Amino acid sequence: MRAPLGDFDNATPAPDCLGLLTAPVAEAVRAWSNDVPADQLIYVDTDPEIADTAAFAEHYGAGLLDASANCVVVAGRRGGESTLTACVVLSRTRVDVNGAARKHLGARKASFAPMDTAVGETGMEYGGITPVGLPAGWPLLVDSAVTGVPWVLIGSGRRRGKLILPGKAFAGLPGAVVIDGLGV
């Protein structure tokens, strides 16, 4: 199979390679319920040493910069309580943590969650966190620009490998709320 974007040696429908995914991502693919069929989630094998966006795009195809998204975990705090959420924005932008994300969470303060919290709560590797397979009940904030991209490259739950899926699929992920201006 050929990936719909980038220059990857190996591309496989994610349901056919569950053993390469972290447990929460594999379970989400197994239980996939979205307007986009599960076989349109494509897993591509990648070198974990070049997982960061700029180096990754240089190696696997410059066009990936416009088709890549990042998923980050944000902690919102209000009155001593903390709420975790994941935010997805195109990789050429940054999450508006103290504007759009904080407001949506109704938080007084918001910041990127510490690495150990993000990894521990998601069951995914740092640098590979994906919105596919997040903990049940988490809000998932998706920048509207992501849903307009035909194919989006995002983490697979591990630093090795990425997922490619249609941008419109992000709006149908559990807990997803599409927001204009989340990525700035």
Automatic annotation (TrEMBL):
Transmembrane segments: none annotated. It holds the Pfam family tRNA_edit. Residues 48-168 form the YbaK/aminoacyl-tRNA synthetase-associated domain. InterPro entries: YbaK/aa-tRNA-synt-asso_dom_sf, YbaK/aa-tRNA-synth-assoc-dom. CDD domains: PA2301. This is YbaK/EbsC family protein. It comes from Streptomyces enissocaesilis.
